[in-house]
Amino acid sequence: MERKFTNEITKELVGKKVLVKGWVFDVRVLGGINFVVLRDKNGYIQITAKKGEVKDVILQIVSKLHQEDVIEVEGIVKESKQAKKGVEILPEKIEVISKAEVPLPLDPRMVTPANLDTKLNWRFLWFRTEEARAIFGIQNEILKAFREFFYNNGFIEMQPPIIIGSASEGGAELFELPYFEKKAYLAQSPQLYKQMGAVSFERVFMITPIFRAEKFDQPTHLNEVRQMDVEIAFADYEEAMDWLEKALVYIVESVLKNRKKELEVLNVELKVPKQPFPRITYEEAIKALQKEGEKIEYGDDFSKLQERKLGEIFGEAFFIKDWPEEQKAFYAMPKEDNPKIVKAFDLIYKGLEISSGTQRIHIPELLEKRIREKGLDPKDFKFYIDAFRYGAPPHSGWSIGLERLTMQICGKKNIKEVTMFPRTRERITP
Ligand code: ATP
Ligand code: MG
Hints:
This protein is α+β, with helices and mostly antiparallel strands. It has two domains: 6-98, CATH 2.40.50.140; 124-418, 2-Layer Sandwich (BirA Bifunctional Protein, domain 2), CATH 3.30.930.10. It has twelve helices and 17 strands. It has helices spanning 56-63, 116-121, 123-126, 130-152, 191-201, 237-258, 260-265, 282-291, 304-314, 364-373, 382-385, 402-410, and strands at residues 17-30, 33-40, 43-50, 70-79, 87-98, 156-157, 163-164, 176-179, 182-186, 203-211, 224-233, 279-281, 317-324, 334-335, 338-349, 352-359, 395-401. Strands 6, 10, 11, 12, 13, 14, 15, 16 and 17 form a nine-stranded mixed beta sheet that branches. Strands 1-2-3-5-4 form a five-stranded mixed barrel. The chain has a three-stranded antiparallel beta sheet with strand order 7-9-8, with no helix packed on it. Strand 1 (17-30) and strand 2 (33-40) form a beta hairpin. Helix 4 (130-152) packs across helix 6. The model has no long low-confidence stretch (mean pLDDT 96).
């Protein structure tokens, strides 16, 4: 008999025999009737075993079932006033495929609430909750919409390397690893590689893990991140912001259209951010914070609290552009009229930086000069600088942190909640 998924069991099947497989989400005895709620990847179905209506052997099996046992059930679909879906299954055969140990370290029904540590320690059990399914359903939608948007616009998907020979942005944020006779690093960004893609393929995007070796202690930071990156040849930074704005709107619209149920589960009221997104300058942002009495000077980066405050002032989604060069990486293109300022931008969404981008330097001499000024050695970047010696158009790009965006869309306060297997200083298992 062919297996049916729970979402396929509708009123049209009343009177028909079906086979379902899944986990025991709940077992209850009410007024002498045994109810089992079976969960599979698509949802739930109630299985009702009433004395006199089913064989005694079935009643015996049901009476020994525990939450999260894996079962196979054959039975007849019946209309039911009590069952949530309006249908239930009258069991003719139940087979226990795998028993769950008792007690469960985490209750997937969330009747007994779990704290964050328990949710992180028992990740696979937490994946069985409505909450986790909603979060990762939405994350799936974000990934799908991102890919779809850029495929629809003629971009090419790239696969940048994770193991790299030199720092992409410089600085001490790199995880080092032994690599045969040499030292290698885990990529902190696909930056150099996506630029090499763009000077040949023109329009590229990628979804790739990156690693940051900082001792973070913030609910917004992980040591392993999934980034959604884009690089566009012949685009200046204003055009890169246009693409970012359109991509974010497309993603939010897709979540609204296809993940209504998940948003309800999370109790989130999502709206498409108002367009066009304001593009304020870094200097304007500093002044606005100073006016609010914040301790911040021109040249400082914004703290996470200050990003939130800026969100209250400038709205749900806006860009901060024209940054002082010391705040941004060596590859950021200086402005023609003031080389102390670079053509860089951050996107703040619901009070948190979710993306950064720049117009890149495509002129080898200028790039070498900037690498030296940042205290790095141009020799380490030869392969990269060479990419701009054989016909390199101006180009710009950006990167969205997948977990940051998921967190903001799902209205979660801690990035670990929305990361399947978060990597932080304290945690590398599970
Ligand atoms: P922040 O200033 O918030 O620490 P960043 O400016 O160092 O971030 P970028 O190098 O601009 O980060 O990376 C691009 C995007 O990748 C960020 O806007 C963010 O969405 C995401 N991201 C970067 N670092 C982290 C991290 N440690 N944890 C989670 N997401 C991150
Ligand atoms: Mg940034």
